[in-house]
Design goal:
This protein has helices at residues 61-76, 85-90, 98-116, 120-124, 143-155, 171-180, 199-203, 223-231, 245-254, 264-267, 270-283, 296-306, 354-360, and strands spanning 3-20, 25-38, 43-48, 130-132, 135-137, 161-164, 186-189, 212-214, 236-238, 259-262, 287-289, 329-330, 339-341, 351-352, 361-368. β7 (186-189), α7 (199-203) and β8 (212-214) form a beta-alpha-beta unit. Helix content is 35%, strand content 22%. The chain is an alpha/beta fold. It folds into 2 domains: 3-117 and 352-368, Enolase-like, domain 1 (2-Layer Sandwich); 123-341, Enolase-like C-terminal domain (TIM Barrel).
Length: 369
């Protein structure tokens, strides 16, 4: 496969509801859509998941655009790609910038699968026909609002609830949730809001029977997390700390976590996501697929990834309607009884709605080899 054209689009879409974490609040979402076209005219799509502000990682929409246009796409020029795994190697000369790499690499995966006449699920070795899904609920204005969101989510069939916590909005919040929803599978995401100075507070999380607490300590830490995991019964899930399969191996060896969240954008693409999955599976560490408030293209790639066998916890890949009035794919991602049926359409499993993409496009860059 030889890439002949790359189209970079920057989109801006408004989410149905504001989404708040310990970092801040977002409702307008800017993101990139990458389209690659091979020499036979096959098209593949990837989604850049960096935010406009560098509050999750150091990347932003603008830095991703710069890296893709000026460094990553030129590296593909003249290359014959036998398998998408090769893109990971082609990009190795560029340090980090994982979300930029993932956007391009996922587009190549989609294009290659279509070229082979197979689904992306088949291309990566996935087997599941259905995947279980949960939902992530941002910080709310008060408990009544949060309780309503949880109630609605459970009525919709979601199989796990994730809530955001931060200092000052943690123990009382979780206590109120457990009083109202004593049996719901519940996890808490701290987005690195705590330190080991909060050890006594974090020990109190054990009373809430959480499935896990996600990334309680620093974004780049695996040492203090190991200390914390020894002191609490609640399983620690690492998110931002894991950028590669090597990071996963080291964290597991240190005992820093009992669960790992895999996000395609965070780790640099589908190839590295698969490697992390395999490392964790061999070590007996379960994984799940986190969300980055994706539109439909990113959501479709997440669904394919979650069909791998070691994804044993429900992920954050809720249906399109949970976030968008209208998504950029057809059909939209739908959830029924807490599950998504994996599409049998070749490639990522969904068609792009080009009219909807163009309606939200605020910048377009065409590159031809």
């Amino acid at each position: 496969m030889i890439i002949r054209d790359v189209i970079i689009r920057k989109l801006e879409m408004t989410m149905k509801n504001p989404f708040s974490t310990s970092f801040g609040t977002m409702q307008t979402r800017q993101f990139l859509v990458i389209e690659v076209v091979d020499e036979k005219g096959n098209k593949g799509y990837g989604e850049g998941v960096a935010f406009s502000i560098p509050w999750y990682t150091e990347e932003t929409t603008e830095t991703s655009l710069h890296m893709i246009q000026d460094f990553l796409v030129p590296l593909l020029k003249g290359k014959t790609i036998q398998h998408p795994d090769e893109v990971n190697e082609i990009f190795k000369s560029i340090r980090k910038n994982n979300m930029a790499k993932a956007a391009v690499e996922c587009a190549v995966w989609d294009c290659w699968a279509k070229r082979q006449g197979i689904t992306l699920t088949e291309a990566i070795g996935g087997k599941k026909e259905k995947i279980d899904v949960g939902i992530s609920i941002g910080l709310q204005t008060d408990f009544e609002a949060l309780g309503e969101r949880i109630e609605q989510s459970l009525e919709s069939g979601f199989k796990r609830i994730k809530v955001k916590i931060k200092p000052g909005s943690d123990l009382k919040l979780l206590s109120e949730i457990r009083e109202r929803f004593p049996e719901v599978p519940l996890m808490a995401d701290a987005n690195s809001a705590y330190t080991l100075d909060d050890l006594e507070l974090l020990k109190q999380l054990d009373q809430f029977n959480l499935t896990m607490i996600e990334q309680p300590l620093a974004t780049d830490d695996i040492v203090d997390h190991a200390t914390l995991q020894q002191q609490i019964q609640t399983p620690i899930c690492l998110d931002e700390s894991i950028l590669s399969a090597e990071d996963a191996r080291k964290a597991i060896q240190l005992g820093s976590c009992r669960v790992i969240n895999i996000k395609i954008g965070r780790v640099g693409g589908m190839t590295e996501a698969k490697r992390i999955h395999d490392v964790c599976q061999e070590a007996g560490i379960p994984v799940w697929c986190g969300g980055m408030l994706e539109a439909g293209i990113g959501r479709a790639h997440n669904i394919a990834l979650t069909t791998l066998s070691n994804f044993t916890f429900p992920g954050d890949t809720a249906g399109s309607a949970s976030y968008w009035e209208r998504d950029i794919i057809t059909p939209e991602v739908t959830v029924e009884d807490g599950t998504i049926t994996v599409s049998e359409i070749n490639g990522m499993g969904y068609e792009v709605d080009m009219n909807e993409i163009e309606r939200h496009t605020i910048q377009r860059i065409d590159i031809h080899f």
